[in-house]
Amino acid sequence: MATHRELGHSGLHIAPLVLGGNVFGWTADEKTSFAVLDAFVAGGGNAIDTADVYSAWIPGHEGGGQSETVLGKWLAQRGRRDDVLLFTKVGMELGPDKKGLSKAYIKRAVEDSLRRLQTDYIDLYQSHKDDESLPVTEPLEAYAELLQEGKIRAIGASNFSPQRLQAALDAAQNGLPRYESLQPEYNLYDHATFEQDDLAIVQASGMGVIPYFGLAAGFLTGKYRTAADLQKSPRGAGIGKKYLNDKGLAILKALDAVADRHSATQAQVALAWLMQAPGITAPIASGTSPGQVQELVEAMDLQLTTADVAELQVPEPAKAA
């Protein structure tokens, strides 16, 4: 069983892999989502990340809430609330008057999330993206009240500039609660921005880090290698545009070599690299079948060598003169 890690100074201790709930009620129907959640907990996982906006981008899903609703039904039917940590988020647009991080909106949105999740508290409540129209202190004031009321246990941030993140941490020294976690985009393909902008901040402050897109929208599983492969998924077109290039193919080649040495899959190696990366608490990854989830949780027991890590650090391709 993988050793649990504390998320920042929150008092929340999590396995080194967080289950992403973005697929619940979207590419995984309710029955499949329940099976995925069962497999994750059975495999030693204990933290599940969702958001109020999942999956508002789908026609007919306007207003979001589908993922939280499915998760809430699973918690109620399985009686697992005390066995898992619930992470959700606020701030993305759900409607004309339902977005941002104003104090009034956060206080309203948390009630909607609690109702959908069928619980009376959220373990980690995250600002899904910064609201730069407001001072960094406004959401912290809302969170202070929710912490006092016992409706949330800790707070986190996602999609903040390093300047605004540091400002929020500084504000927390004046009696306001502090963000205990950061949720950035970070994976073997996209790692430079986090390392340059955020790593020093999180290490100096002791924040936890739970990166999203740990498998680069599925590209790092190795199943997209040619233009024809892109037909395998609704996400294929976007994957091809961003990742199917010289750099991406070089990373897949390195993943193949390391996976072969460890008798592991490319996805397991990509996640193990994240779990061992400086500053990272636990990557987020999602699955749409129990088999996929079993593969993902096994990454928690994969130890990469220094040579493996060096091989996976594919240099940026040289720019043409």
Report on this structure.
The protein has 321 residues and is of the alpha/beta class. Helices cover 40% and strands 12% of the residues. The protein has an eight-stranded parallel sheet with strand order 9-8-7-6-5-4-3-10, covered by helices on one side. The protein has a two-stranded antiparallel sheet with strand order 1-2. Helix 1 (30-42) links the parallel strand 3 (18-20) and strand 4. Helix 2 packs across helix 3 (103-117). The protein is globular and about 50 Å long. The model has no long low-confidence stretch (mean pLDDT 95). One of its GO terms (molecular function) is oxidoreductase activity.
Core attributes:
12 helices; TIM Barrel; globular; two-stranded antiparallel sheet; eight-stranded parallel beta sheet; 321 residues; alpha/beta
Question: What's the topology here?
Answer:
Elements: E1 5-6, E2 13-14, E3 18-20, H1 30-42, E4 47-49, H2 66-78, E5 85-90, H3 103-117, E6 122-127, H4 137-149, E7 152-158, H5 162-171, E8 179-183, H6 192-197, H7 199-205, E9 208-209, H8 236-243, H9 246-262, H10 266-276, E10 284-285, H11 290-298, H12 306-312
Helix pairs in contact: 1-11, 2-3, 3-4, 9-10
Write down the CATH class: Alpha Beta
Give the CATH architecture.
Alpha-Beta Barrel
Alpha plus pi helix count: 12
Low-confidence stretches: none
> Largest sheet, described in full?
8 strands, parallel
Counting structural domains, the number is 1
CATH topology: TIM Barrel
Percent range for β-strand residues = 5-15%
